């Protein structure tokens, strides 16, 4: 009996040794320590033993059972530890690997120029006004002194949606709407940045969709000298303190008188170069005193109120400022172009 128990112990411990899965250990446990296992059988047959043999064999059987049980427990723990170690090794992060560069975005050059212009005018007391890009013919043309058969409508070939609705050709309708909301009470001092649309064939200097910034100041006693002072500050802040400006007579249906503003060339200082095409001057915007008809249509009494207005193309300003030769660069989003305008 003793030998049998010793042999069972050796056999069970060998099975525990060779087990490589928890399931195999469970099988060993059932086989040797289970209710129908050989050790239980020995314990059950104890009654047949002599009084001297019984405690000895009983003790031995318990010792064998405990030895097998603790070998199983130890092996389960060892297998679990091994499994964790293997997982840690396979999932290890190599902290010495070089990192991946994160692509950093930046402002689009046109956005940067628009924000710079906005900040300049905000600094002079203007607020920003916005309005719809899909506009009524009335606000886009009629309220701006461009009646239905006016020839100047041809200058702004338009995308019509219906007979009365179109994609705005300038941001002037925002100004007409804002003035209307003031019910004839000044002051109104706003700039209107936004997208505009014209039926144009795209080339280096034309785009069917582009940006505009227009501005307007309506109050009692607003004069051409206020326009000149305001736009001189703008030109100097935008293109350098030593810039001179000159106003040339022009025509716009919504302003009277109308003027175009040139700045002295920021490249050659007025001597004449390729930027100013040898003239020493660069045209940057159009402006004028708001036409009495326009004031009247937007609810202001032209006998009491006067105002100046101006309009500029930020693409043109950005092209001049950064030496960009093609307006299409702003809209084709070539990474090589955009990356040149990273802010410090
Ligand atoms: C109202 C009254 C007057 C806005 C003006 C211009 C002159 C002008 C062009 C410059 C280049 C547009 O970007 S561009 O194509 N604009 O020359 N715009 S005065 O005058 C207004 C606007 C609204 C109610």
TrEMBL record:
InterPro entries, per the entry: aa-tRNA-synth_II, aa-tRNA-synth_II/BPL/LPL, Phe-tRNA-synth_IIc_asu, Phe-tRNA_ligase_II_N, Phe_tRNA_ligase_alpha1_bac, Phenylalanyl-tRNA_Synthase, tRNA-bd_arm
EC number in record: 6.1.1.20
Ligase found in the keyword field: yes
PROSITE patterns recorded: AA_TRNA_LIGASE_II
Domain Aminoacyl-transfer RNA synthetases class-II family profile: 111-320
MF (Gene Ontology): ATP binding; catalytic activity, acting on a protein; magnesium ion binding; phenylalanine-tRNA ligase activity; transferase activity; tRNA binding
Reaction equation(s) it catalyzes: tRNA(Phe) + L-phenylalanine + ATP = L-phenylalanyl-tRNA(Phe) + AMP + diphosphate + H(+)
Chain sites annotated for binding Mg(2+): 256
GO-annotated biological processes: phenylalanyl-tRNA aminoacylation
Cofactors named for this entry: Mg(2+)
Any one GO CC term of the record: cytoplasm
Cell compartments where the protein resides: Cytoplasm
Pfam families xref list: Phe_tRNA-synt_N, tRNA-synt_2d
Any coiled-coil regions, as ranges: none
Cofactor comment text: Binds 2 magnesium ions per tetramer.
Record keywords, A-Z: Aminoacyl-tRNA synthetase, ATP-binding, Cytoplasm, Ligase, Magnesium, Metal-binding, Nucleotide-binding, Protein biosynthesis
Subunit field text: Tetramer of two alpha and two beta subunits.
Annotated family: Belongs to the class-II aminoacyl-tRNA synthetase family. Phe-tRNA synthetase alpha subunit type 1 subfamily.
Name by which UniProt lists this protein: Phenylalanine--tRNA ligase alpha subunit
Organism in which the protein naturally occurs: Pullulanibacillus camelliae
């Amino acid at each position: 009996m003793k030998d049998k128990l010793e042999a069972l112990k050796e056999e069970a411990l060998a099975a525990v040794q060779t087990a490589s899965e928890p399931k195999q250990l469970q099988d060993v446990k059932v086989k040797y320590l289970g209710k129908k296992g050989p050790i239980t059988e020995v314990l059950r047959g104890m009654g047949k033993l002599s009084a001297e043999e019984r405690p000895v064999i009983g003790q031995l059987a318990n010792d064998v059972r405990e030895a097998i049980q603790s070998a199983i427990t130890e092996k389960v723990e060892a297998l679990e530890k091994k499994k964790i170690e293997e997982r840690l090794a396979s999932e290890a992060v190599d902290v010495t690997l070089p990192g991946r560069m994160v692509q950093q975005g930046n402002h689009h050059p046109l956005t940067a120029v628009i924000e710079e212009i906005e900040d300049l005018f905000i600094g002079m007391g203007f607020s920003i006004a916005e309005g719809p890009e899909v506009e009524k013919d009335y606000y886009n043309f009629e309220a701006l002194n461009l009646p239905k058969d006016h020839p100047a409508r041809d200058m702004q070939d338009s995308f019509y949606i219906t007979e009365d609705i179109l994609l705005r050709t300038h941001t002037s309708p925002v100004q007409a709407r804002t003035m209307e909301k003031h019910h004839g009470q000044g002051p109104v001092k706003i700039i209107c940045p936004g997208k505009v649309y014209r039926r144009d064939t795209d080339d280096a200097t034309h785009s069917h969709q582009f940006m505009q910034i227009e501005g307007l100041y309506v109050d009692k006693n607003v004069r051409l000298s206020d326009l000149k002072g305001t736009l001189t500050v703008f030109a100097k802040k935008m293109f350098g303190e030593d810039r001179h400006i000159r106003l040339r007579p022009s025509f716009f249906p919504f302003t009277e008188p109308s003027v175009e503003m040139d700045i002295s060339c920021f490249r050659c200082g007025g001597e004449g170069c390729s930027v100013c095409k040898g003239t020493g001057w660069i045209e940057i915007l159009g402006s004028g005193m708001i036409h009495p008809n326009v004031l009247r249509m937007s609810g202001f009494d032209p006998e009491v109120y006067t105002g100046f207005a101006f309009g500029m193309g930020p693409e043109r300003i950005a092209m001049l400022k950064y030496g960009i030769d093609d307006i299409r660069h702003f809209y084709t989003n070539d990474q090589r172009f955009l990356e040149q305008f990273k802010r410090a």
